[in-house]
Amino acid sequence: MKEFNVVELLGASIPVIRPKETKLIIVTGAIAVGKTTFARDLLNHLINQGYHVTLRVEVARTLENEFRLYQGDSEKYACFFQYAMIRAYYNEMKEIKKLKNYDYIILDRTYLDTIPFMNVIIPDGDIEVLEMLNDELSKIEFPFDVAKVIYLKPSCDKMLDRYRIRELDERVKDGGVDVGYDDDYLMAIYDQYDLCMDKMYSSYMRVMEMITRENLLIGDCDYDGVQFHFLPIDVDESTLYGTGDYVLRLHGILTNGRRMRIDVCGIKPFFDILIDGVNVDDMLSEIECESHEVIQAKPINLFCGNTKEFVRFYFKNSGIRSKQLRMVKDRYVTYSNDLTFHYRKVLREGKIDVTRWKMVKSSELMYGNNQYRKVLK
């Protein structure tokens, strides 16, 4: 089953007239988002349309030995692997420059895609290392004009599910050896792509399309002073670029079938700790949060006739929440502690119904009782 409809996406986007000069099409996205599969489908589609096209192998796949070193000791070889990637991309651009007989050259990631990975695996304190790597990046440029940048971004849950399936296949091939990434790393890369996309491809935003769950998000849509019905189909959570705040993203349709995304802001992700023989002052001193409160509730994972006291900790975004939760989950009894699907708890607590049509008041920027930031058509 194909996740993306290439014909629908590109049927009216790329002209039938063949370009006078070779153009680049960049397919980008985090790990396990369907990027390589989409690039192959795109290649076949363009060939069937009569274009002369080639798809370049992702550069990371050519650095197997360097990658194995990095996997063996990621802290020791982080800088080495990033440098090797950048140098490989430098050489790749030189090779691509020789390919002048194609209409389109499809790139499965580019040298700019080293930025989100660099932000995750290189410590912030290694200023000299970061400056050196960025200096090497500045020496690379695309040999041809970019016709289109396609950013693939399924929901975080779907990305994790895809990776687990892929990891299982790779583990079988490697004789049962675990060579995979943990969820923390995958989600960190996923979030960094959202944060870095404007910086990475700001010069090409006019040709960028973001694909999410078979839907296209194209520009802002002005609905001031209008009420409209909206049916959520999918939900994910992310971090707002520039502020680092938590955002709940609702993807759905209008009554006329038009696809839409609503970003619900002003929500603080949280987890709870049971107050039962616990020194609350010690607990408060070791957890870094934006705010906290004591709540009365009944534990939902066992029968309890009486309410119990919990401390609820609120955080700026899901990344900070996850980090703090991992620090304390083995020493305290925690609730609302899902590291992967916390948005489900956010939906319940915020009484955000995603199972039926909802009247959205654009003039008030409200989705139910929650403020939303913008609407994308």
Automatic annotation (TrEMBL):
Check the record and name the InterPro entries matching this protein.
DNK_dom (IPR031314), Guanylate_kin-like_dom (IPR008144), P-loop_NTPase (IPR027417)
Domain Guanylate kinase-like: from-to ranges: 22-212
Protein name, as recorded:
1843_t:CDS:1
The species this protein was found in: Acaulospora morrowiae
